[in-house]
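This is your field. Have a critical look at the following sequence-structure pair:

***
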Amino acid sequence: MSELSINTTQNVKINFIAASVGERLGAFFIDLFIVICYITALSIVLFDWLQLDRLMVNLDGWSRGAIFLLLYSPVIVYSLVLESVFEGQSLGKKLLKIKVVKIDGYQAGFGDYLIRWFFRVIDFFTFFGLPGLITVITSQKSQRLGDMAAGTAVITLKNKINISHTILEDIGESYVPTYPLVIKLSDNDMRIIKETFQKAVAKNDHEVIYKLAAKIESVTGIKNQSGNNSDFIRVILKDYNFYTQNM
């Protein structure tokens, strides 16, 4: 398996594991099964129940082609629509817990999914899918041609690093910071603070939390306004994220 390093906008490097060939093939065949089920069900309803072929007997070729194109268009745009709606996942990818991401750390957008969709013709339907299979196996980041063109990769979410393993914190757009002096700290300082704090909370070690809060005060000159050391450290973590995101 290939490991992908993605730098977030906060300059935090997060490592992901590229989806294996087996996972990608599994997702592909699940999606293919869903598409075949749709085509089969549609054909039964239209031709066996509604006798559509008899109803269209007097239509010209262009009209019949337009009707079929409309009815079967969900099959054509299946992967494009689902990956756009579910942010990089088709139903097959969801079931196997893999996802399309940008290799520069940003969320893939519709344009990226569109490029991948265009290249499906080459990757999957030329020479029985050999171009896509070969490039996934041989490329450094396990990318098919569509991924290379779009600047994307497919990762597994089973080994995804959670936000709790980084210095990132969930803060809303309306968040108001309390301690501007927190910018005196570095990313490495915040990693140490967060890891130490999480371990202390897990062990209910109030002494370590007290010493950690005191150390933050002495290094930054910040005075704890809350009176609660745990709440103080949580605000410090959030404030650091706020200021580093908006610098």
Observations:
- The longest strand covers residues 3-7.
- The CA atoms of residues 116 and 146 lie 4 Å apart.
- The radius of gyration is 26 Å.
- The chain has a mean pLDDT of 85.
